[in-house]
Task: inverse folding
């Protein structure tokens, strides 16, 4: 099942609860109780960071468009998106 399938099952009374992301619950007008915060990192070689495709990705990550979309979906904190965490 996808997260949307699960949310639909809850909404239709076929399930009482399930594990999914807040965005799926929001799409289906369900209450959401966060259980865990998960962080994702993108690892790459230093030289790859400066290539045009990665620079386009980083520019998109910092864009108002992406910030607005993440905010509208709910449950995504993109405030540190694009930040270099380790550079050795």
Result:
């Amino acid at each position: 099942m996808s997260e949307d399938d699960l949310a639909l099952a809850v909404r239709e009374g076929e399930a009482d609860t399930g594990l999914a992301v807040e965005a799926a619950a929001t799409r289906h007008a369900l209450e959401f109780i966060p259980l865990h915060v998960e962080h994702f990192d993108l690892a790459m070689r230093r030289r790859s960071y400066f290539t045009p495709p990665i620079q386009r990705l980083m520019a998109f990550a910092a864009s108002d468009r992406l910030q607005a979309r993440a905010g509208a979906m709910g449950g995504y904190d993109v405030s540190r998106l694009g930040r270099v965490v380790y550079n050795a």
Q: What stands out?
A: The chain has a mean pLDDT of 93. The radius of gyration is 17 Å.
